[in-house]
Design goal:
The structure is a homodimer. By secondary structure, the first copy, chain A, is of the alpha+beta class. Chain A has helices spanning about 5, 20-25, 55-60, 140; strands at about 15, 35-40, 45-50, 65-70, 75, 85-95, 100-105, 120-125, 130. A four-stranded mixed sheet of chain A has the order 3-2-7-6. The first copy, chain A, has a two-stranded antiparallel sheet with strand order 4-5.
Amino acid sequence: MSIFKDNEGRPQGAKLDKAAILAAVKFNQEGLVPVIAQQFDTLEVLMLAWMNAEALAETLNTGRVCYWSRSRKALWRKGESSGQVQLLKSARIDCDGDTLLLAVDQTGPACHTGRRHCFFYKFEPDAVVIDGEVMISPDELYKK
Amino acid sequence: MSIFKDNEGRPQGAKLDKAAILAAVKFNQEGLVPVIAQQFDTLEVLMLAWMNAEALAETLNTGRVCYWSRSRKALWRKGESSGQVQLLKSARIDCDGDTLLLAVDQTGPACHTGRRHCFFYKFEPDAVVIDGEVMISPDELYKK
């Protein structure tokens, strides 16, 4: 049994111990959990990235979203090179404690391609279509 | 280079080969990709689950969402035991080809706890609070 399973039947508004929940987050074998970032007002899903325990703690403590970069193997304070930061509005974890959903306020494009969100390859019956306009060119985004 | 990287600069409406995109999906070491399910009209994020290549092909071909159950190690046609199915409205893949975003029409609760979505553990400054009403009790959901 886990703290998530133990508490899933509790009613709306029930309060649980935050440190105990944080200690029970189910990180994968690489020490990471997937994190969905959703724009808090438009409800667009912007991206999915990963956090380790340190990135999660920093995000909750500072209110600025910090991921773990799997390619760079380092903490990744979203926007540190592009200037396009994510401010945290709220954080949730799911029923089995292995996925986070963040409501964020994203400055400009969330995607490294300069698009607002990363999900711009859309499946159609006979093709995949680019569905997403480039807001700022990557050359412009990363010249800083 | 990947087909995703190669095409990321193309304009809105550009068409790509669907079979080539499907062949390039970046499954993890277990052969899975994370999949975000979002209710198509309200834009609520309902859940995150996983697909292997077979589940993805079945979902795109049938229009009914099929995941891979990591606990049961089997295809999981969402709603097969609870009756709470997900119909596919659209499917997208992200800029680096390792995450899917589905727009779905979810019948009733998406969560095994009987709640509409799985993200009902909400972080507050000094606690984690249950934020999500049970729509149908799990006993009722799974008695079928």
